[in-house]
Amino acid sequence: MKYSRREFGQIALAGVPAALSLESLPTFAAAKPNSQWAGVQVGMNVPYNFGTGNYTTGDDIISRCVQLGISGVELRAQPVELFLGSPAAIAGAANAGRGRGRRGAEPTATPGETAPARGEGQPAAGGEANAAPGREGGRRGRGPLTPEQEAARKAAAEETRKWRGGVSLDKVKEFRKKFNDAGILIEIVKWDGIFNFSDDELDYAFQVSNALGARALSSEISIGQTRRLGQFADKHKMQVGYHGHTQVTPAIWEATFAEAKYNAANLDLGHFVAGNNTSPVPFLKQHHDRITHVHVKDRKLNNGPNVPFGQGDTPIKEVLQLMRDNKWRFQATIEFEYPVPPGSDRMAEIAKAIDYCKGCLV
After folding, report:
1. Which runs of consecutive H residues, i.e. helices, occur in the chain?
2. pLDDT band at 30 (very low <50, low <70, confident <90, very high)
3. What is the tens place of the pLDDT at every residue in 43-99?
4. How does strand 36-37 pair with strand 40-46?
5. For the chain, which domains are there?
6. Which among 15, 192, 168 is positioned nearest to 85, based on CA atoms?
7. How far apart are CA 179 and CA 217, in angstroms?
């Protein structure tokens, strides 16, 4: 049976838990957070850091940021599209609600979109052609789609494209206002699966990001496809920060920068140290004008593990102080990836990471 977009949205919404409903986000009366110290905006990769899944609602993200005192974020696009009423996002939220009852997992792909990344160090399902190892590519052990599943995916993707073509930017600004009222800047918007977007969808991604007040977009890097996205970045005069894992070298970044004026890097300090076995500081000094934000995590050399801040080989303090002393205004985005130790919890560990960064600056 074929459903209209309105009917599909109503059916999908019926399966969304009450906490994920599309009612207006609440107004937050708590004191506004402030995580800008000595001119350096320390932010958070959300909702990724919270482990709540990509379809976490905006109100939950705001509540957690206020609790932690965080005033700047790199925000994934899924919570925005959920608020806007995307049928795919509604279905993803419903699937996430059911899946969380089983094992608290991140949601899998829903019809109409490439699967969200299941962690910055893991590839997303349904991925992008020519992605570098560890990037968006492959279905990570699930096997190929059946012909019926592939047909359903293509049909739903087309439906999502049509839906995106009718989105009201006024509704986007309504979402932004709630963050602004809470004292939280949406500085970067991350788009999963962006290399599969049509030209119209790429324009949509830049327009939505701009309406949210973002300075830049971000995406996992897909080697061989950054020239096309860079052309749209140049058109909209808005940087795209490509996120690289341990396999991405300075030479790859520099080749990407050469493809378009607004091609840039989301420089992950921990991945750089673990993959290149050297400090990211020289690269940062040379290319600071092509950095949209840095991901702050602590890792060991030689593809070593993520560890609590201050226990690894990543020069977090040196980088933060360079940002302070040189007045570099890109965000220092905490990315929480080390295992939660026994007796603690994720929010407590994130708070420790925030305190570590603050201690480096004041």
Report:
1. 5-14, 58-68, 77-84, 87-103, 147-164, 169-182, 199-211, 226-236, 250-259, 269-276, 281-287, 316-326, 346-361
2. low
3. 999 999 999 999 999 999 999 999 999 999 999 999 999 999 999 999 989 988 776
4. antiparallel
5. 5-15+31-86+167-361 (3.20.20.150)
6. 168
7. 17
Report the chain's mean pLDDT, rounded to a whole number. 85
d(C-alpha 111, C-alpha 113), whole Å: 6
Residue 31: its pLDDT value, please?
82
The one-character DSSP state at 217 is E
**Would you state the structure tokens that stand for residue 299, as one six-digit string?**
């890792």
3-class state of residue 248 by DSSP: coil
Reduced to 3 states (helix: H, G, I; strand: E, B; else coil), residue 73 is: strand
Rounded distance between C-alpha atoms, residue 283 and residue 196, angstroms = 30
Residue 207 has pLDDT above 90, yes or no: yes
Ramachandran angles phi, psi of 218, nearest 5° = -140, 160
The pTM of this model reads: 0.83
Please name which of 268, 308, 355, 341 lies closest in space to residue 68, comparing C-alpha atoms.
355
